[in-house]
UniProtKB/TrEMBL annotation:
EC identifiers of the protein: 4.2.1.9
Residues in Dihydroxy-acid/6-phosphogluconate dehydratase C-terminal domain copies: 24-214
Keyword annotations: Iron, Iron-sulfur, Lyase, Metal-binding
Taxonomy of the source species: Eukaryota, Fungi, Dikarya, Ascomycota, Pezizomycotina
GO molecular function: dihydroxy-acid dehydratase activity; iron-sulfur cluster binding; metal ion binding
GO cellular component, one term: mitochondrion
PROSITE patterns assigned: ILVD_EDD_2 (PS00887)
Catalytic reaction list: (2R)-2,3-dihydroxy-3-methylbutanoate = 3-methyl-2-oxobutanoate + H2O; (2R,3R)-2,3-dihydroxy-3-methylpentanoate = (S)-3-methyl-2-oxopentanoate + H2O
Descriptive protein name: dihydroxy-acid dehydratase
GO biological process, any: branched-chain amino acid biosynthetic process
Annotated InterPro entries: DHAD_IlvD/Edd, DiOHA_6PGluconate_deHydtase_CS, ILV_EDD_C
Annotated segments matching region Disordered: 1-20
Enzyme class: lyase
Family: Belongs to the IlvD/Edd family.
Amino acid sequence: MTVTGKTMKENVENLPGFPEDQTIIRPLSNPIKPTGHIQILRGSLAPGGCVGKITGKEGLRFEGKARVYDSEPDFITSLEAGEIKKDEKTVVIIRYDGPKGGPGMPEMLKPSSAIMGAGLGKDVALLTDGRFSGGSHGFIIGHIVPEAMEGGPIALVEDGDTIVIDAETRAIDLVVPEEEVARRRKAWKAPAPRYTKGTLSKYAQLVRNASEGCVTDSGLKN
């Protein structure tokens, strides 16, 4: 029952149908594309999984050289300085912004919007252990697990590394020899937490990874 005193069906049953030539609201038999734009990818860069928003407008496969930033502000400064070039396939990595690293897994709307605003939508893929809003668009991958703060592969990426993202095979890989990855892992040390007391410090210590929903009560006794 609705505020009109009628059911939803009764409210719309006498409305005219859609014009035959309209293409906005499509039937299931004629979708814009056969698959959705939300993709779950896995690979050597995200063994625990990650979430891709890939419509296909910017392509379904991206291969480029990594450009690594340990915070969102560092990336914005670099972009504004003109350090990200058009026609150079670049995989921007913004890390240490996951559930523990953020802490709180901040939204990456500003970086994704800045990339599109700079006209780099077809030249840059954005990868992060942070998250995206529904308004973000471009070749973007978020929710990377394990996150950088936990020493995930994203923490071991260096500038110039080759990264391949394939939405059709749902793969995301760091193309670096295993021996080199092992060397980097041995040398890696977690950075100091951004908060050492208070609510955010407690949150960072309790929160689970993005693939597990970022819950904070896992394992607690009733």
